[in-house]
Design a protein that fits this description.
The protein is an alpha+beta fold. The protein is built from 16 helices and 18 strands. The structure holds adenosine-5'-diphosphate and magnesium ion (MG). It comes from Trapa natans.
Length: about 575
């Protein structure tokens, strides 16, 4: 309540009516019109004057009733002193004196009234001097009258004093009540001030948050204006966009029509290309025969031979075998590969067949020849020089990648061996057991193709899987015999690659097979002069090769009957 302080401020420590004025409630009290602050002084003065006046005639200033026996009156020759030692606080307040203070009365006129100051002894004086002097008697009487009057006056003064004392007590009482009231009020004011202070603080907080809100509102208004402007701009943009999107949509529709048209044309074109491509292959020859003459092996080199086969070859595939420098026999092939031709050169002429297989045609590649002429090398190859089997599948995956937007393919591989008219699944687990526990048979399907039910089919999605499958088959073939070289040359090894294709544009599905066959050695029985088990092996080999020859011959001559199932040569 700092703002309330200045108007009511009074010097600290100052007092009024004997109370400390340090408390603000008493400050308010000082201003109260009920308090006879000035009157007390006036009444005190008049009272003293009265006393003084009476002292001139009588010194019996008996204040023992009003002052309650606390006073001491000292009189000497020159002055009269009234001393209060333990005066009642009420009277002290009226006189504006503190306990122990004194005030002096002017001395009575001794010259005039020396004997009168000894009023208690007046009767004695009368007794001493009465009758002796009429003047004295008169004087005595006068004095007596005067004394009686003074006594009466004293009585009145006493009464007045009592009255005043009572008044003072009442005034004090009311003053105390007022003080208490003031205390209560002050406390109330204090609590109100506290509450107001809290409210003021709260209010200032509200004001500051109001200010913040106002500021935020201003910012938001500005932002809103900006956003409204932007919205208006966007609105106009939206109209443009709608216009553009309508144009784009119509263009898209046109393009879609065009696309569908092109798609249909493409499907048609692809079909045509496929047919033409295969026609070309057919024109090249549905059955093509390539000849490969291997280089000398290390044994032959050390033996001093210069060539494995002495031959001459023309560019159109005509090959003439020479013997001791003389021309012996001439053969006609689609292509002839000399000793210098590597695996890639040989595969070059085989590669187009991979496209045919993926287009849905069945293809069969055989390696035919005597033992040691390089059939297995050509078909399987080595780690460093991989053969036709691996390279054909590699070509498959290359084309599949190329066509991935248009076709989806599923490729599975089976590897089997035909030995002594028995089929062995080279991918089945436990292929070491010879003869195999499960007997496999060739069956003809409704479409005229042949298959072996129950054969293991391995799905391949990449070349590492292909290589794994090829290695598994190759190893199983070698393990099947105590002499792997001899066994492999007396059995046919067949890789069957099954291709399922789906045209993603028209949903057309194809199913085709590629057979990669490493045939058993084609030695003549007469030359080998074998007997027993070996003879049986050789007979089986020759019979099967002869049957194969019949089939190829019938296919080549486009015979109406192809002897696929013929058992006799
Ligand atoms: P086959 O399977 O016809 O009995 P192989 O393929 O086993 O004959 O070949 C016999 C040997 O001659 C093998 O050691 C093979 O590595 C080697 N050979 C065959 N053809 C070639 C060739 N074109 N280049 C190098 N070595 C060859
Ligand atoms: Mg071989």
């Amino acid at each position: 309540m700092a703002d309330l302080d200045p108007p009511f401020h009074t010097d600290p420590g100052s007092s009024m009516l004997g109370f400390s004025l340090t408390s603000p409630d008493l400050v308010i009290c000082a201003g109260s019109p009920d308090l006879p602050s000035n009157n007390s002084r006036d009444s005190t003065d008049s009272f003293l004057n009265k006393c003084h006046q009476k002292m001139e005639t009588a010194l019996e200033l008996s204040l023992d009733k009003g002052i309650k026996g606390s006073q001491e009156i000292k009189r000497n020759r020159d002055q009269l002193t009234v001393r209060f030692s333990t005066a009642s606080p009420s009277l002290i307040h009226v006189l504006s004196l503190s306990p122990g203070s004194s005030f002096e009365l002017p001395p009575p006129d001794v010259s005039e009234d020396k004997d009168n100051s000894m009023m208690p002894y007046a009767d004695d004086a009368e007794n001493e001097h009465g009758g002796s002097s009429p003047e004295l008697a008169i004087n005595y009487k006068r004095q007596k009258v005067e004394l009686a009057r003074m006594r009466k006056e004293m009585e009145e003064l006493k009464k007045e004093n009592c009255l005043k004392t009572k008044e003072c007590q009442e005034a004090l009482k009311s003053l105390q009540e007022l003080q208490n009231e003031l205390m209560r009020k002050s406390m109330h004011v204090g609590s109100l001030a506290f509450a107001i202070e809290g409210q003021v603080k709260e209010k200032s907080k509200w004001f500051s948050s109001l200010r913040d809100l106002a500021r935020k509102l201003k910012i938001m208004k500005m932002e809103q204006m900006k956003l409204s402007e932007e919205a208006a701009t966007y609105k106009s943009c939206l109209q443009d966009v709608n216009c553009i999107s309508a144009t784009i949509q119509s263009k898209i529709n046109q393009q879609e029509e065009l696309h569908n048209d092109l798609k249909a044309k493409f499907v048609e074109g692809a079909k045509e290309r496929k047919e033409l491509y295969n026609k070309v292959l057919e024109l090249k020859g549905n059955i093509r025969v390539f000849c490969r003459c291997r280089p000398l092996n290390s044994e032959e080199s050390t033996a001093g031979a210069s060539v494995a086969v002495d031959f001459e070859c023309s560019s159109d595939g005509e090959l003439t075998v020479k013997s001791n420098g003389a021309f012996r026999k001439t053969y006609k092939f689609d292509s002839v590969f000399g000793p210098q031709a590597d695996q890639a050169d040989v595969f070059e002429d085989t590669a187009p067949l991979a496209t045919s297989v993926l287009d849905g045609y069945n293809v069969c590649i055989f390696a035919y020849g005597q033992t040691g002429t390089g059939k297995t090398y050509t078909m399987e190859g080595t780690d460093e020089a991989r053969g036709v089997n691996y390279r054909t599948l590699e070509e498959f995956f290359r084309i599949i990648k190329e066509r991935e937007q248009l076709y989806r393919y599923d490729i599975t591989v089976s590897v089997l061996e035909v030995y002594n008219e028995q089929i062995r699944d080279l991918l089945a687990s436990g292929t070491q057991s010879v003869p195999p526990t499960k007997r496999l048979e060739i069956r003809q399907s409704g479409e005229g193709t042949h298959h072996v039910p129950g054969l293991t089919e391995a799905h391949v999605n990449n070349m590492s899987q292909v290589w794994e499958v090829l290695q598994t088959g190759s190893n199983a073939r070698a393990i099947g015999s105590t002499n792997s070289n001899e066994h492999s040359s007396r059995s046919h090894c067949l890789h069957c690659v099954m291709v399922k294709g789906e045209n993603l544009l028209n949903g057309e599905c194809t199913k085709s097979k590629l057979w990669l066959v490493d045939l058993a050695g084609s030695e003549r029985i007469a030359k080998t002069e074998v007997q027993g088990e070996r003879l049986k092996e050789t007979q089986n080999i020759n019979r099967s090769l002869s049957a194969l020859g019949d089939v190829i011959s019938a296919l080549a001559t486009k015979s109406p009957h192809i002897p696929f199932r013929s058992k006799e040569p």
